[in-house]
Amino acid sequence: MSLATLLLLADGRLPSGGHAHSGGLEPQIAAGRVRDVDGLDGFLRGRLATGGLVSAAFAAAACADTGRAAELDVGLDARTPSPALRRASRAQGRALLRAGRAMWPVPAIGREPHQPVALGALAAAAGLTPVEAAVAAAHGTTTGSASAAVRLLGLDPYAVHALLARLAPECDRIAAVAAARSGDPVDELPAAGAPLLDIGAEHHATWEVRLFAS
Amino acid sequence: MRAEARVVAESDGRGGTRLAVLRGESPLLLRRTGRPAGGGVTVHLVGGAAGPLRGDELRLDVVVGPGARLEMLSVAASLALPGRPAPPSRLTVTASVAAGGTLRWLPEPLIAAAGCDHDVVTRVDVAEGGTLLWRDDLVCGRHREASGAVRADTLIRYAGVALYRHELAVGPGAPGWDGAAVLGGGRAIGTVVAAGPQLPGPPVVGADAASMRLAGPGVLATAVGEDIRQVKAALDPWCGAALAPLALV
Lengths: 214, 249
Fold this sequence. Notes:
The complex is a heterodimer of chains A (214) and B (249).
Chain A: H1 3-10, H2 25-30, H3 37-64, H4 69-79, H5 83-103, H6 115-125, H7 130-153, H8 157-180, H9 195-204
Chain B: E1 2-11, E2 17-23, E3 28-37, E4 40-47, E5 57-64, E6 69-74, E7 78-80, E8 89-97, E9 102-105, E10 110-112, E11 117-126, E12 131-139, E13 149-158, E14 161-170, E15 188-195, E16 198-200, E17 209-213, E18 218-225, H1 228-239, E19 243-245
Parallel strand pairs in B: 1-5, 4-6, 5-8, 6-9, 7-10, 8-11, 9-12, 10-12, 11-13
Antiparallel strand pairs in B: 1-2, 3-4, 12-15, 13-14, 15-18, 16-19, 17-18
């Protein structure tokens, strides 16, 4: 285990295109559901408990055994009903693989895997453990949307980072739950869904002007 | 309370469907209703007792054979209630649809009364060439009441491959369920999964509704509303829509 390597993998400055995605926040802001830090708190807690848990479990599972990448990818397809979100996840997976291949010897797992599968494979190649892959995944689901909130709503960045600090123990808890289940059969891995993210992503994909890709 | 119910629908060999098994016990009572139409039969689920209440363990198995057509409805919403201190109530529904068979599962909503603690586990297997329409509506609390805890755990397989795998948790113990990622201010949600060679064609319309082409041979329509009327307005027409070939959806 290398803490510095984990920080590198979880860093928002990793050139993997994550900054282009709001994690489903942009359409919810447009719908008037998120207007302030309190609204962002509810959004992030829900996202962490649903997509965050699923991403963490699949990243941990891919890290534990990159040979499962193909079946994990199919499992994420079945957990991502929105075509727009499947495209966004695969685009981010592809970008992450490209960055990761420059950093570590990442095994072949297909050209455009879902983002959590790519993250798990990178973590394995970097010598990290499944629970570390899960922490990076859970952390990424909150920080990406949080920085998008600062840009979309002009929120106070200090207040937003205070919120992220309050959520950090929940990220750790989710990651521990996810890693403990990472050896389960794919159908039994976490599948928590977020209906408004699915619906919002489908509407968002039809907008002519938007700041974020998803 | 423990109860089991079972329905087996088979082709009668003359273009129609017969019920080889129709067995239930309170609170899961089953009644064949209406006249055979379009080669299919309709079965209503009739709540024979209050609940589900904490501690209840209920199971319903549905089998649709080759060429058979079955529609499952319910006479009223089901109301999950708190009851005495006990483990969570649980309803397990399994269904299998053979090639050439059709199952339409269109029950009334489940209402999560304040204080309830209820699990719904759904496992559906559709063989290649089978047709499915599977609807689940959930209302979070009765009128102006806090939501109870409900966890729905759904797996629908088509031709042996997971087509739709979804869990939804609402109420106490479900972090962020009323936040803007999950249900926002909504207190009702409906989902319909259509699977098979023929699928409902038109898109679902509404600000908080959408139909989505799944990665496998199916479509999900989902709607979130302040109340169940908004959900029904978005999903009811879709459930009755004409089917179109998969390639055109």
